[in-house]
Amino acid sequence: SAHVAVAHGGAFVAGKAQYADVNGDGKADLIVQGSDNRFWLSESTGSGFVAPHMVVAEGGTFQAGQAQYADVNGDGKADLLFQDNDNNFYLSESTGNGFASPHLVIDHGGSFQTGQAQLADMNGDGKADLIFQGNDNRFWLSESSGAGFATPHLVADQIGNFNFGQAQYADINGDGKADLIYQGADNHFWLSTSTGISFSASDNLIQGDVGNDTLSGGAGNDTLVGGLGNDVLMGMAGNNQLDGGDGYDIAVLSGNRAEYTVDFIGDTVKVAGVDGVSVMTHVEALQFSDMRVSTSTGAIMVDAVQHGGVALAGKAQYADINGDGKADLIYQGGDNRFWLSESTGSGFVAPHMVVAEGGT
């Protein structure tokens, strides 16, 4: 049953409390960042936390997202990286029962914005690296040296402008290196796997939200999933997996009038052409250029108006749910239903609903 593990004064403020293994014993400890930017550590006992003790002080006042915890020097203990208002980064290594005095390790210029800087082991050497997402959605990597970070170099470029929460890092293919997953404003998910020194070009992954979505994969091998609502899935060139989900869904093939071979295999439709093979499930109509064909009757249909969903920070998260060493995608819908898409190593399978919470 639930019990009080430790008490801190003051009122709740999102982002003040975080959890990381500071002493390397395999248990997550509690670090609370005060309004005055003093940091208080409560080590885990396994069934709760010890009384908090002050371990380091940074200047200024609390802002959510300025403090992050990860093992920067590879000793198995979480260190504190603090990003100040002018994008100077200060590292305080874990001593096992606190943190060392902060020292400047890198300067990115500009001003602080929550979420632009994240820590992840991108090259698989056991030390957390710094990835910085610029306002122009270019990504800059600074590898950890153990005592600081290397000069940043450009590793990926996404269109559009920075929005908090669209970029996240997790080991999708199980090779020990953190990959980049970018969630577009239209809820396209783009995977760029880590090469150890950069990120590969991305292929489109998934998925629509509740409502009527238009999903376009573009070139490459795509997995598009409509979810609820009446959706348009456009895999375009490449070998694609298209799942319409619920509703009346339309799969749009390449816009030119090329020849296609269409096979109906149970509830699955396989369409092969010069630009790739698309395998479709839960799709009610195929559209070839300006002609639409029902997958059930063969009748030609007229176009329908579609509306796409939009990305919201925090809806998509990544964790190894099935214990295979690869991070899976968990998507929280606007109705608080949770959809799981297990990692295949190069993308994700079609989402399936795994739990529902009340509210929105």
Automatic annotation (TrEMBL):
InterPro entries: FG-GAP (IPR013517), Hemolysin-typ_Ca-bd_CS (IPR018511), Hemolysn_Ca-bd (IPR001343), Integrin_alpha_N (IPR028994), Serralysin-like_metalloprot_C (IPR011049). Keywords: Signal. GO terms for molecular function: calcium ion binding. Pfam families: FG-GAP_3 (PF13517), HemolysinCabind (PF00353). This is VCBS repeat-containing protein.
